């Protein structure tokens, strides 16, 4: 009979969350490097390079891979012979571990969890509570899987109740383009099939805890229907040409995981949950001998990559940039931004739009300025700002026209594609949208040389900051004519992939 102490579980959860905040799983690093080596689209290749460089920097500096340090999900397999030496419930122990991890002064993690989600949306300030699942199993150990799931990728989750005769593959191929690039590909797709609605979602989430091993499966061949689906979906999704960050390219998914469960004869529940380029999860077992000890991966696991530069890179001074200058930028151009930039995301945009509607002044003058959609991690020690990667830009689409029309805003910077309403507004007001790489938050933060809050300080990480930049890398994603690389890039690369296949089989 095993006795597990309260502090051992708390310390193990806290340690695991710190660990995964700055260490990618080794299988992910290797798969991402393989994607980098085979990528032929320069823009996608550069995005993957940034992700890998950022990953190594985070491992060395022990700072978060992504500014969105995620909502915590914990899967517990509790042995039936386990006893507890504890005053707290197991759920409370898990949440205490989360609290300690996210408030750790040596590596502060961003608190993103809001209570009263359809009302006041008040931040709990310690990222609790987590989402905790239990399975009571034979045995005398406690098996724990810990994951931290970013909001951008979680937002792209899909569910459907198919008819029994409907094709899962066809539905997945219909959904993946609709997911856009807000889930920060390349990453993984977890697919759950069967059971009930909630069971399918659980299966998809659990599938993402498995290691990346699609190449092994390709080598040995499928042994069952789930493995057949993995191979077919992996191949067909990558043929879509969506590529890294949606820029077009050869690798959209690095693996596809499928888990299934018996289903009612009238139903075929199917769920997709993607994991982003900030894949964060780990596993440990408690056997009563103390807290878990996780072994850091060797730095030799990270490839030594430097970003490739070319004569096409343009340096931009945000303090002097004009509308005439932005009209010279083409979709896919790489820019290095220097000068002063404002920030603002969902809550700040809502407040600004409300002030405009009431005829009141904004806390900052946006005329001729660029705004970056970001909610940074708090700085520690001598940092100017913590990891500060972009958030999903489409959430700001509904605010874009009024912001461009009423404030004189010149341009926007965020993650992934813009929707049709935003693109139309960008075209009408001859603005521009620039894309920073999701999953490269610590790398981006190195370009920020000064930071101060200039509006809505009560919003915490969603306040308006002013950043002073030196060579922040971005890609022109929507130009002043409304041409979007997230529309042209995948189409071009889907055609190229088809041509490559024809040449290969010729």
Structural features, described:
This protein has 506 residues and is α/β, with parallel strands linked by helices. The protein folds into three domains: 1-150 and 280-308, no CATH class; 151-277, 60s Ribosomal Protein L30, Chain: A, CATH 3.30.1330; 314-489, fumarase (Alpha-Beta Barrel). 34% of the residues lie in helices and 24% in strands. The protein contains 15 helices and 19 strands. Strands 14-15-16-17-19 form a five-stranded mixed barrel. Strands 6-2-7-12 form a four-stranded mixed beta sheet. It has a four-stranded mixed beta sheet with strand order 8-11-9-10. Strand 15, helix 12 (397-407) and strand 16 (411-414) form a beta-alpha-beta unit. The longest helix has 21 residues, at 485-505. The mean pLDDT is 95.
Supply Rg.
23 Å
Helix content: 25-40%
- Strand residue percentage: 15-25%
Separation, N- and C-terminal Cα atoms? 64 Å
Oligomeric composition of the shown chains: single chain
Category from helices, strands and their pairing: alpha/beta
Question: What labels would you give this structure?
Answer:
506 residues, alpha/beta, 60s Ribosomal Protein L30, Chain: A, five-stranded mixed beta barrel
């Amino acid at each position: 009979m095993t006795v597990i102490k309260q502090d051992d579980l708390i310390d193990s959860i806290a340690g695991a969350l710190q660990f995964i905040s700055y260490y990618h799983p080794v299988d992910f690093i290797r798969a991402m490097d393989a994607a980098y080596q085979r990528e032929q689209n320069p823009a996608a290749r550069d995005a993957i390079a940034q992700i890998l460089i950022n990953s190594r920097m985070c491992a060395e500096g022990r700072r978060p891979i992504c500014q969105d340090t995620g909502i915590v999900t914990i899967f517990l397999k509790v042995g039936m012979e386990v006893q507890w030496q504890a005053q707290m419930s197991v759920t409370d122990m898990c949440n205490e571990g989360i609290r300690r991890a996210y408030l750790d002064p040596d590596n502060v993690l961003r608190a993103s969890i809001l209570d009263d989600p359809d009302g006041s949306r008040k931040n709990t300030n310690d990222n609790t509570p987590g989402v905790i699942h239990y399975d009571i199993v034979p045995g005398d150990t406690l098996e724990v899987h810990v994951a931290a799931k970013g909001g951008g990728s979680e937002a792209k989750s899909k569910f459907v109740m198919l008819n029994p005769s409907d094709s899962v593959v066809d539905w997945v191929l219909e959904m993946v383009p609709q997911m856009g690039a807000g889930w920060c590909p390349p990453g993984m797709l977890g697919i759950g099939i069967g059971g009930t609605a909630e069971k399918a979602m659980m299966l998809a989430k659990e599938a993402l805890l498995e290691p990346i091993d699609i190449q092994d499966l390709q080598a040995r061949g499928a042994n069952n229907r789930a493995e057949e689906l993995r191979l077919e979906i992996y191949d067909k999704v990558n043929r879509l040409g969506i590529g890294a960050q949606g820029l077009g390219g050869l690798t959209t998914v690095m693996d596809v995981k499928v888990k299934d469960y018996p289903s009612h004869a009238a139903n075929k529940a199917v769920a997709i949950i993607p994991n982003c380029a900030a894949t964060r999860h780990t596993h440990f077992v408690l056997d009563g001998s103390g807290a878990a000890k996780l072994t850091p991966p060797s730095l030799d696991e990270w490839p030594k990559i430097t970003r490739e530069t070319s004569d096409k890179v343009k340096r931009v001074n945000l303090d002097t940039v004009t509308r005439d200058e932005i009209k010279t930028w083409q979709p896919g151009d790489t820019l290095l931004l220097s000068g002063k930039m404002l920030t603002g995301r969902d809550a700040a945009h809502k407040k600004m739009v409300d002030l405009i509607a009431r005829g009141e002044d904004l806390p900052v003058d946006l005329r001729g300025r660029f705004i970056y959609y970001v909610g940074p991690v708090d700085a520690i020690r001598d940092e100017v700002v913590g990891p500060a990667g972009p958030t999903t830009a489409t959430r700001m689409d509904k605010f874009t026209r009024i912001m461009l029309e009423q404030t004189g805003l010149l341009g926007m910077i965020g993650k992934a594609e813009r929707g049709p309403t935003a693109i139309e507004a960008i075209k009408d007001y001859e603005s521009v949208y620039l894309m920073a790489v999701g999953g490269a938050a610590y790398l981006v933060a190195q370009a920020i040389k000064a930071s101060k809050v200039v509006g809505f300080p009560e919003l915490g990480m969603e306040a308006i900051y002013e950043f002073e930049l030196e060579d922040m890398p971005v890609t022109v994603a929507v130009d002043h004519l409304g041409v979007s690389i997230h529309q042209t890039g995948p189409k071009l690369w889907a055609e190229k992939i088809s041509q490559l296949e024809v040449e290969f089989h010729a």
